[in-house]
Amino acid sequence: MNKLAAEFIGTAVLVLVGCGAAVLGGDHIGQVGIAVAFGLAIVAMAYGIGPISGCHVNPAVSLAAFIDGRMSANEMVMYWIAQFAGALVGALILLAIVGSNANLGQNGWGPGYLGEYSLVAALIFEIVFTAIFVIVILGATGQGSAPGFAGLAIGLTLAAIHLVGIQVTGVSVNPARSFGPAVLAGGQALVQLWLFIVAPAVGAVLGALLFRLRVLKVATA
Questions:
Q1: Please, are residues 10 and 45 in contact by the beta-carbon 8 Å criterion?
Q2: What does pTM read for this prediction?
Q3: Which CA distances in Å does 19 have to 121, 138, 179, 201?
């Protein structure tokens, strides 16, 4: 239960801080500021709850950990429940502050959404960059990694991903992060939510298989 509570809180904080920066401060801090907010949220939670649950705060990360043999299927599903619930609560808190569900930092693509990129562009971005994110996470927390620096590496990677992709999809690489705002915003965000579940899952599998198949495993004597 401690692990699930940690994942619940961590995912809520990620949505509240990251999406909150976009909604409440986006006009002032811009794309760079939003990217930094998401990255700092991960860094903070990595050191705050990492020792308890590993700080997945992302169903795609838990899926990757399962594929790499780091957690059981049952534990993965329990993590998913905690993460989606936490994301919804984080979005609810943001809604209470904003007072409107028009913009809760929901992800999307196409006409009227930020850079108006296509469905194909959104799919490619979310698959590729989730795979990259997972590779960093599994590598930074695996055998031969530098103890104590994983949180920083993961947070900086998430910030970099946002710098690249905010105009494409708003950046998900995390089904829970997309779920909370989309459920409350409804409309087009909810219609497009499928992509932000499917694409990160595909990316997570691709990234994790590189470790499972020992392509990126540290060589042992």
A1: yes
A2: 0.95
A3: 22, 25, 12, 21
Please give the CATH number for the structural domain made up of 2-212.
Answer: 1.20.1080.10
Spatial separation of the C-alpha atoms in residues 152 and 140, rounded to whole Å: 10
Return averaged pLDDT per consecutive 10 residues of the chain, 221 residues in all. 96 98 96 98 97 97 97 98 98 97 97 97 98 97 85 97 98 98 98 98 98 82 48
Classify each residue of 31-43 as buried b or exposed e, where b means 16 or more C-beta atoms within 10 Å of its C-beta.
beebbbbbbbbbb
Whole-angstrom CA distances from 151 to 32, 138, 139, 146 are 20, 12, 12, 11
For the chain, domain boundaries: 2-212
Judge contact between 107 and 198, C-beta under 8 A.
no
